[in-house]
User: Fold this.
Amino acid sequence: MKKSWLLICFINFFIAALMGLLLRLMYVAPVERINFQFLLHGHSHVAMLGWVYLMLYCFIFHFFIPKEAQQKPIYNRLFWITEFAVVGMMIRFPMEGYALFSIAFSTLHIFCSYCFCWLVWKDSKPASVPEKQLLQTALLFMILSTIGVWCLGPVVGLLGKASPFYQIAIQFFLHFQFNGWFLIAILALFFHQIKAEINANQFRLFYFLLVTATILTLALPVSWYVSNPIFYWINSLGVILQLLSFLVFIKLIRPHFSSFFIRLKKMEKTVYGFAIGSLTIKVGIQLVVLLPGLGQISHQIRNFVIGYIHLCMLGIITGFLLGFALQNTFVNSKNILVSWGLKVFLFGFIVTEFLLFLQGIYLFLNQGALPLYQQYLFLASIGLPLGLLLMAIGINGKQSHFSDEIITIE
Assistant:
C-alpha cells in the first residue's frame, strides 16, 4: 500500500464530511446558489466511493494480493483512475445533480470497480477459506449492486422518475453496496486480522445465514414503494436470520477474542469496540422495525433514516476501517494529531447520532421539534470534518509512523 493512497482516502472523507456539514448549515441559515439535493448527491457519492470503496481497495490490495502481484502497474493506475472518477463526481454532482458529466464519472467508477473485481479474483491469495469465501462474496455483491444503477436509465425512459421501480432500483444498489459489498468485505478483513483457525462447520452456518439474510432483507426497502404483506414476512425472515448470523459470528470469534484484543493498544480497542457496538445496535434496530407499522414509519421519519445510514456508514464500516488502519500502523495512534482527531471524530459521531434518533423519537411521539435541534446538530457535526482533518495532517506529518514493510511511500 502507498502512503499517498491512504492520504487520498482521508482527504476524500474530509471533503465528504465538509459537504455534510454544509448540508446541515443549510437547515440553520440559507446558503445562496447551492442546490441542497445536488450537494446531497455529491456528499453520498464521495463518502461511499471516495472513502469506503477506496479504503477497501487499499486493504484488499495490501492483505490479499501477494507481493509479486502488487508490483503490477495496473493496481496503481487503476487507483488513480478511480480517484479521478471520484473527483469528477465531487465537482459535478453539487453543480448539476444527475446529469451528463456526473453520470459519466459514475459510470467510469463502475467500470473501474469491475476491473478491480477481476484483478482481485485473479490475483488474491487469502490465507484461509473463510477469508476467501467472504472476499469473493463481497465482490459478487458489488457487481450485483450495479444492476440497480444500469436499470435507472430504462426505468426513467419507460416509466419516469415518479415510478416506484425507479426508487427500488436505487434501493437495490444501496442495499447490496452497504449490506453486501461493504459489510462482507469488512468481515473478510476482520477474519484476516484475527489470524486464528475458525471452526469450519460454524463458519459454513454463519456464511449461509449471512448471505441469505442479506438477500431477504432487500424486501424492506421494496415494501416502502410496493404495498404487499409478503415483503413484510420476507424481511422478517431475513432479519431473524441476520440475528442468528450475528450470534454465530460472536460464537465464532469468542474463543479468539481475548488473544486478539490483548495485542491491541488502547485506542485500537476503543475503535474496534465502537464498531462492534454499532453493529450490535444495527441488528437491534432491524429487530425493532419488525413491530407492525414501524417499518413504514421508520422510513417516513427522515431523522431515523439519516441516523441509520450514518450508523452503518460511520459507526460500523468506518469504525472497522479505522480499526484496521490503527492495528496495522497505517495510522499511528501515538501521533497527537491522529489521537485527538479520532477522539473528536468519535465524539462528533456519537452526539449527532444521539440528536438524530432523539429527534426521530420526538416526531414519532408527535412531540414536535427539539429546541434548537438544527443548531445543535450543526455544531456537533463540526467534529466530523475537524477530526478527519486532524487525522489527515497527522498521517502526512513527520510524527506519523509508517513501516517500510507495510507501506511503500511513492
Notes: Residues 101 and 177 are 23 Å apart (CA to CA). Residues 229-261 form the longest helix (33 residues). The two ends are 10 Å apart (CA to CA).
